[in-house]
Amino acid sequence: MPFSTPLALFALLVSATTAYPTPQDGPVFPINKGCGEVNVFYTGFPAFHPYVAAQGYNTTEVNTGLRKGAAILVKAGYNVRILFQGPDEPASTIGERMKGEHWDVTAQGMGLRGFGNGTATLRFEDNNYEFQRAAPQAPTVYNWGPPSFSETVIRRVPLLEDCAKMNKTGTLIAYEEVCDPSICTTTTVILDGDMDKLLEGIE
Q1: Would residue 3 count as lying in a domain?
Q2: Are 35 and 169 in contact, with CB atoms under 8 Å apart?
Q3: Please, what is the Cα angle at 36 between 31 and 148, to 5 degrees?
Q4: Which of 177, 162, 157, 158 lies closest to 66, judged by CA?
Q5: Is 25 part of a structural domain of the chain?
Q6: How many distinct structural domains can be found in the chain?
Q7: Domain extent for 178
Q8: Minimum mean pLDDT range among 15-24, 28-37, 67-76, 156-165
Q9: Per-residue pLDDT tens over the stretch 75-117
Q10: For residue 4, is it within any domain?
Q11: Residue 103 belongs to a domain with what CATH number?
């Protein structure tokens, strides 16, 4: 049927272009960012959670790797918020900790993704769900073990400057392991951004 007026044709074209999401509607990696301009939210298992040892990891080495990885990210110019917890804690804690902040990148550790365990896989899915609800524009990256903790973010979101060389660091928003003492023998909780505490006993 021919269109009665040019206006009718225009209305049809507008409706067609707005009916489907455009690529800009999904997650987008930030670009052209400088020191202190990228906020990263990272989650995974606490280093001393039984699910970490069950995968054959040396939990002391994992603890060192995760804390050093967080420090590398901060020194490289990223603002970092860590929340490590197991499936024994509610996944909704992620959404609670993400409130009130704009997040550019979210990340999950290999322990969640690589453990051949139904409970861990369900938690992995729940974490992604919390990310999507709290920061739908933020892409999610995944490391392949503690040594790649920082690389997984840096390779995807390189900053414009060598922030470490220029001594223009980011901020440790928090490093928080949430785990009942009956489950985890040790936890690290740093809520005041103190980098010396983060590296205490592991350097």
Answers
A1: no
A2: yes
A3: 75
A4: 177
A5: no
A6: 1
A7: 31-199
A8: 15-24
A9: 999 999 999 999 999 999 999 999 999 999 999 999 888 888 9
A10: no
A11: 3.40.50
Residue 164 DSSP class: T
Angle at 178 between CA 151 and CA 85, to 5 degrees: 55
Contact 66, 28 (CB under 8 A): no
Q: What percent of the chain has pLDDT over 90?
A: 81
- Whole-angstrom CA distances from 19 to 12, 16, 27, 106, 180 are 11, 5, 19, 28, 48
Sign of the alpha-carbon torsion through 86, 89, 94, 95: positive
Nearby residues of 16 by Cβ (< 8 Å), 6 or more positions away? none
Confidence of residue 203 (pLDDT cuts 50, 70, 90): low
- The answer to whether residue 88 sits within a structural domain is yes
Mean pLDDT of 135-159: 95
Is residue 12 scored above 50 in pLDDT? no
Exposure of 100 in the CB half-sphere (CA atoms within 13 A): 4
Rounded Cα distance between 120 and 114, Å, is 9
